Amino acid sequence: MLDNLETLLQEHDPEGHFRPGYDDYAELLRRVAQTPHQSCLLLTSRETPAELRHLEIRQASVRALRLAGLEPAACEQLLEERDVVGTTQDRVRLAQRYAGNPLALNIVAEAISDLFGGEIGQFLAQDTVIFSSIRDLLAEQWTRLSALEQALLFWLAVVREPVSIEELLSVRITPLSRAQVREALEALQRRSLVERGKAEAGLGRYTLQSVVLEYVTELLVERVSEQVKHAVWEHLISYALEQAAAKEYVRQAQERLLVAPVLLCLQSIYRQTDAIEELLLRLLTQLRTWDPQAQGYGPSNLIMLLRGLRGHLRKIDLSRLAIRGAYLQGVEMQDATLAGASLRDTIFTEAFDATWSVAISSNGRYWAAGSKRGEVRVWREAGQTLHLVWQAHTDTTASLTFSPDERLLASGSWDGSLKLWDLERGTLLWERLTSNINCVAFAPDGSLLASGGDDALIQIWHVTSETLVQTLAGQGGAVHALAWSPDGKLLASSGFDGRIRVWELQNSICVQTLEAHTNWVTGLAFAPNGTRLASASWDRTVRLWDMASGRLIQTLLGHTDRALRVAWSPDGRTVASAGFDNTIWLWDVERESYQAALHGHTADVYAITFTPDSGSLLSGSEDGTLRVWDVKSGQCVRIIQGYAVSLYDVDWSPDGTQLVSGGTNTQVTMWEAVGGVPSKVLRGHSRIVHGVAWSPDGRLLASAGWDNTIRLWDATTGACLQVLRDPDAVDTIFQGVAWSPDGRLLASGSYLRGVQVWDATARTRYWVGHAHSTKVRRVAWSPDGTRLASCGDDGSVCLWDASDGTLLEKLQGHSGMLASVAWSPDGMQLASGGTGQGRGGSGELSIWDAQRAERLQALSGHAGIVFALAWSKRGDLLVSGGSDGILRWWDVQRGECVRMREGHHTGVQSLRVSPDGHLLASCGDDNAIKVWDLQSAELLRTLRRDRPYERLNITGTRGLTEAQKATLRALGAVEENETGVLD
């Protein structure tokens, strides 16, 4: 027997030839193999000698056996003999971690006995796999490797999961042939350092055992740390510490196991953060003098280290660098510069807000997402390339659906419009205006399109002829979910009455009513074979129904808050659900059991859909991210991070020195009106803040949010004094909020829960008014405090007796939804604004006689929705703002628009006149508050918290598409114009 034969082989030789002076061993092997005899020679080696490979091919008497790890039973026996204990799961994890290697298991078992009292669980909790004896063995093997073999091991440690030769070639800085890489990998396989996994798409994939992975990772961290210290570039430019384009869970592992440990090493040397920062910046300055091709991963690695060190990249000079694979998503870069830099595979934050709807086309080629403020984005190549971005609607894009042939995209919105788009060009083919639309769905053959909304109607449209062919009534409330059966014969609907109705389209009749849910049902999905239906409800359950009998098959429990959406995988095996608990649940349909919970979103998950191969799931959330999940592993493989803050309301302090705002970032922000500096940021709401109001005495602030709360704040200290909730329905979503003139009462609109008025002193609910059939967006007190006006998506203005909630009048005349209402200073007139029902959806603005309940004037000019109204102190001027971003000054007596100003990008959400009547504050979808001179309409100042890339210089930056540049500019980046001025 010859043991450890690799010690006689040449180092750095992938072929496995013997060292000079040991050629006799080669001759010995040949003689034993080729000479007749009755003996047996047994060899053990971590590397395969070249002679042995040749002899194995030619001689039947020569056999090579690659030793795999021990079987589980043998591992169990080994661990028992070493007196280490643990659960069955712990013993299996330990054996898997060391790939069943008996030597490694013996070494680690000894360490567990000595250091952890024989407890396997305690050892596993330390999350380390290497001990000195194992490290010595690996170090000995490392010294025997060629430079190429070492480089490949370093890259396999970086990518951290099985990869193909092509993927390894794509990340290397220095070019190599495929044959060179393949030969080196085969040599590493022979040394038992690399494993070859199952082929995917015909490509073999290579990876490292966990022991080797940890050793090489530690070695790379050690080398990079030393080279940063001494300004040596070899590893720093050759290997990426973090890959922006990697799967998200891999990138996070790289950040945790490569970037962070290098920083720890540097911190142990320099102690002072400033010294490390100075060193890294000095290295960037050196790289700036190099040829871009020679910089490799150096700039990106240094940038990632600076990001980890500082937590941001503000005011950093990255000009004239070749930046490859930097992950800059979610990183603040205000006042930095990328001027003249060259970018490759670099990821930035996107300019979009909360995602309300997602869709994937039938073969997965196109992905689409709709946003809170009406934008639609379409990607090609399974979400890899942004194809189109456009402002599709003037309010939330609530639903999206692709036609089966992938030529069309339908969108439905809370602005009351249903639109059909040409997918290739993004052009509008046709549009229909109804009530607020919550759901749209193409029939399986693509000939029909169904829509459902707040008017409790289901409308069926013929796609080609653009005509309404059927209207189904009877839902009993707003329709929030639609699903076609796979054969197209049935349509399921559900909504706020908690019932699921199944319609037979041929006869326009309801053939089944499914009842079991105890709250709103907002998600539906048929199984691919049509035999079952899944439903998601605000009662926190997902239910499965048998379609033949209408019987409830199963109730799936797991959600800790309201379930919003449900999706059935195309292969029929998995049901996914999502909702207000920020979690996506996966259910194994065949086993009728929980499969996984996908955590990562930090706010409500509004939309989910499977890819056609059922392997991935796309989700969209209020947190501004789109996430792609691997269904099998439950891992998040990609994040598309958006940033777009909308401010929904603004108000003045009674003394006119401060402003307060609230919006999609969930914060209530107090501003110095003159200096433009946030004086306080009040945190407590967990979802959108839709209304803010300053009490008449200036002591309190009120804010109303989508987190089912109204909060009262101390305006001096910023402390939250009280949290008000609907005592009858804890899931009530609150909209606009307003104080009565004497400060005794506080009123708020709500989502389907009417007008709610609170006693501000007792902090209890005073009365509730139910007259609106849908959402109540805004409320406004008459100047004398005796009446309250409310407006909503049903197109009506209601006037209430403030003392007891009696409905006095219901003003009707608008053809579409209403979003704003405001009293004239004398209380004689009332203005209301919204949108009309007509092709184009132009804004409607009405002025009413508040005493006689008659409409006096109808003013037109806005495109889209009139979201905001404000009267001048004298009552001679009315200012309006809408989704077109324009402010209009109206001479009320003449009914004419006398001034127009471009106010806010995308839309104006709120207007308030200062207490002295001289100034006007506006806020909108661009995260800005603007202060205007009310009489002259002159813009005096803009108040805005910095966006992620505010004043980032991208002049002459290469590698950015026009769409990327537009995104960066939307988030604050600037470029020099022809005159050299930044704009």
Number of helices: 16
Average pLDDT score? 90
CATH first level of the domain at 647-775 and 850-944: Mainly Beta
Order of strands in the sheet with most strands:
7-8-9-10
Q: Give the number of DSSP strands.
A: 62
What class do helices, strands and sheet pairing give? alpha+beta
Q: Could you estimate the helical fraction of the residues in percent?
A: 10-25%
What is the molecular shape?
Answer: elongated
Uncertain segments are none
User: Which architecture of the domain at 647-775 and 850-944 would the CATH scheme give at its second level?
Assistant: 7 Propeller
CATH topology of the domain at 647-775 and 850-944: Methylamine Dehydrogenase, Chain H
Radius of gyration: 33 Å
Distance between the termini: 78 Å
The portion of residues forming beta strands comes to 35-45%
What would you give as the CATH superfamily of the domain at 647-775 and 850-944?
A: YVTN repeat-like/Quinoprotein amine dehydrogenase
- Major sheet summary line: 4 strands, antiparallel
Short description:
The chain has 983 residues and is an alpha+beta fold.
Description:
This protein is α+β, with helices and mostly antiparallel strands and 983 residues long. Among the domains are: 5-58, no CATH class; 72-128, no CATH class; 129-219, Arc Repressor Mutant, subunit A (Orthogonal Bundle), CATH 1.10.10.10; 647-775 and 850-944, Methylamine Dehydrogenase, Chain H. The chain is 20% helix and 36% strand. The strands form 17 sheets. It has a four-stranded antiparallel sheet with strand order 7-8-9-10, with no helix packed on it. β8 (367-371) and β9 (375-380) form a beta hairpin.
